[in-house]
Model the fold of this input.
Amino acid sequence: MIADCGLESVITKPIEELSKGYRQRTGLAQAIIHEPEILILDEPTTGLDPNQIVEIRNLIKKLGERKTVIFSTHILSEVQATCDRVIIINKGKIVGEGTPGELASRLGAQDMIYVKIKGPRDVIYEALRALEQIEEILDKDAESEEIFGFAIRPKVGLDIREHIADVVRQNNWSILELNRQTASMEDVFRELTK
Done:
């Protein structure tokens, strides 16, 4: 347990002298020393610095490979980064259950593509609109008279970044930015608990 929880360097120190991160690790070591089949954790990353959060998250994932780990948290980015399955409870009732991706797709939440292109705005818009893989295009802030941003919602399940790049390349425009933003657990939680 000492090695699994990364406690080698502090094993001789009293708990009250340990940092919050090492106290959390010590608590985890105490909880898993008897090899329980199910481990229940409450807010395991609260109060930790970013490096400690990553270490605890990795430890939880490692533990999850050999036992069931259930943890309660309101830090939904931790859920997205750590959990294979999610149960969302609102007012004592289960309102959502599944993988983070399943929950997002059931609600119609999907990836958005943000692109910034240098070229003639109306021509760019029409060329993108002609792509059959695109569900919706929204104007974002124009950076100048020749640099325009668009938020693009692809049809469900499609990755359209290559198609966008092809259109830009064929028209000799320039892509200044292209990224995909996935639906977050915060979005899913808000939708399920309205």
Residues 8-84 form a domain with the Rossmann fold fold (CATH 3.40.50.300). The beta strands are 38-42, 68-72, 86-90, 93-98, 112-118, 134-139, 147-154, 174-181.
